[in-house]
Design a protein that fits this description.
Blueprint (H helix, E strand, L loop, with lengths): L1 H14 L13 E6 L4 H15 L1 H4 L4 E6 H6 L2 H5 L5 E3 L7 H12 L9 E3 L21 E5 L1 E2 L10 H5 L3 E2 L2 H14 L3 E5 L19 H10 L6 E5 L8 H9 L6 E3 L7 H6 L6 H14 L4 E8 L6 H14 L3 E6 L17 H24 L5 E9 L6 E6 L4 E5 L8 E9 L3 E6 L11 H4 L2
Parallel strand pairs: 1-2, 2-3, 3-4, 5-8, 8-9, 10-11, 11-12, 15-17
Antiparallel strand pairs: 6-7, 13-14, 13-16, 14-15, 16-17
The chain binds S-adenosyl-L-homocysteine (SAH).
S-adenosyl-L-homocysteine binds next to strand 11.
């Protein structure tokens, strides 16, 4: 979500005549978009701002700003701490950045009053509709689309409801229009973004033929010509209902990968986290999805070391994590977020224990991911080519429908195309393949999945 917000701000600035440079050293303006989910992310952003502010010594017109969740979370306290800061913009004001920057720059050039630090942290009605701009000149093959803002859940560990505000959704029409524009510019895959995507439109849009607003949105996006693949993140296990499960059967563009945050495999800890589901319910969702798509890929978010997590609780998580067999996971060490209910709980888990539990899950993940990737050696996989790989001359990179990264030798022109790769090798994170000459540029076809 932060990546998408940054991208939208960059696109708005480009439209305003700013150019985006390749490296911070070349920049006259640096805006740091920030995360507040863990303390470490905040500390990094504060450190980086202090470091960058030194540029003002050699370039008095250097502008530095902080955007996003940490700005919203810490507010003016950041200005006291970082007196060189020119701009502090919250999560509902990203679209105001171009105007603020113009004002700051005008005043630095002596054409306006000295503004001091501009602080813009208010709530704004309709702000969910403002994260919409893309760089259509250099479109992403695989792009994010923000479908809603905010969160109405009350997970006891989480700062997001404070930083992102109440849940607000965009209209289906507006989202589809944005995706049509992107498709026309060259985007082939979209990932729909929201804190809890399956609660999309719950208050605004009625059910239709038993289908939730989110599934209606998926159906509408599935109709967009030029879009070949649809993903979304993150759904919540609560509200992951039959209509959404059946969407994987009915919507050919919906990819066989589900990111479903689990957080813990212990029902006691899930209750303490105020996550309203049990491991049994979670397991049921996975089973129902596998019944429809046997080779579905799963990823998740886990927090280790939530206050009061005993060795027995962690053992339940470890065992469940192994049992499900996630191909990918973000494993977080619990980080105290001041102002959240869990911050005041006694029985905080020592850092060393969190570290150990983190390592145990990472190890299981690496093994599972390797086994799954190796099982693909010798098969043909449909890959959406994103562009040149980070390493290797003449090597392209893309992803399978299951969201596994794949690299292969090929011509740059293939960027944006679906190709069939014959998989010849695999590491934990990457598949290696060669183009399968007979079958490149395949149509989206899921019959091979249903035949299992
Ligand atoms: N709305 C999403 C979560 C967004 S935050 C959802 O409910 O699925 C992304 C992830 O950060 C969470 O899933 C959680 O695993 C992690 N996280 C959130 N707060 C955290 C904290 N205080 N410490 C460690 N990890 C945290």
């Amino acid at each position: 979500m932060n990546e998408r917000d940054s991208e939208a701000v960059a696109a708005m600035l480009r439209d305003r005549g700013y150019s985006i440079v390749g490296h911070e050293k070349e920049a006259d303006v640096v805006l740091l978009n920030t995360c507040a989910v863990r303390d470490q992310a905040e500390q990094k952003a504060i450190g980086k701002t202090g470091y960058l502010a030194k540029n003002k010594r050699t370039n008095p017109e250097f502008v530095i700003g902080i955007l996003g969740c940490m700005a919203q979370n810490r507010g003016r306290e950041l200005v006291d701490r970082l007196p060189d800061l020119d701009l502090l913009v919250g999560t509902q004001k990203f679209h105001r950045v171009p105007d603020h920057l113009d004002n700051i720059i005008a005043s630095m050039k002596g054409r306006g009053p000295t503004p001091g630090t501009i602080v813009d942290l208010d709530e704004e009605e309709g702000s969910q509709n403002t994260i919409r701009a893309h760089n259509v000149e250099e479109p992403r093959v695989s792009a994010f689309v923000s479908i809603m803002q905010g969160c109405n859940m009350n997970c006891t560990f989480c700062i997001v409801p404070k930083t992102r505000g109440r849940e607000r959704c965009r209209s289906i029409t507006d989202i589809v229009e944005e995706i049509e524009e992107m498709a026309a510019a060259g985007t082939r895959e979209v990932t729909l973004l929201g804190q809890i995507v399956n609660s999309y439109g719950r208050r605004e849009i009625p059910f239709l033929n038993g289908k939730s607003p989110f599934v209606q949105l998926l159906e509408a996006v599935n109709e967009v010509k030029g879009i070949e693949r649809i993903r979304f993140t993150s759904p919540h296990p609560r509200g992951f209902k039959q209509d959404l499960i059946e969407a994987y059967r009915d919507l050919p563009k919906l990819c066989e990968h589900v990111h479903l945050p689990l957080q813990s495999g212990s029902n006691r800890i899930l209750r303490a986290m105020n996550r309203p589901y049990s491991r049994e319910r979670y397991r049921q969702i996975i089973d129902d999805l596998r019944a429809i798509v046997p080779d579905m890929y799963f990823s998740t978010d886990i927090i280790v070391g939530f206050p009061g997590e005993s060795a027995a609780d962690f053992e339940l998580t470890r065992e469940f994590f192994e049992e499900i067999g996630f191909e990918m996971a973000y494993i977080f060490k619990y980080s105290v977020r001041t102002g959240t209910p869990a911050a005041d709980l006694e029985d905080q888990v020592p850092q060393a224990v969190k570290e150990e539990r983190n390592q145990i899950l990472l190890q299981i993940l690496a093994e599972r991911s390797m086994v799954r990737n190796r099982s693909l050696i010798g098969t043909t996989q449909e890959v959406l080519v994103e562009g040149p790989a980070r390493k290797g001359e003449g090597i392209l990179a893309g992803r399978t429908r299951g969201n596994r990264k794949a690299v292969f030798p090929g011509d740059r022109d293939l960027a944006g195309k679906l190709v069939n790769l014959h998989i010849e090798g695999a590491s934990v994170s990457t598949l290696r393949g060669i183009l399968n000459p007979d079958t490149s540029d395949s149509k989206v076809d899921k019959s091979h999945l249903l035949a299992h």
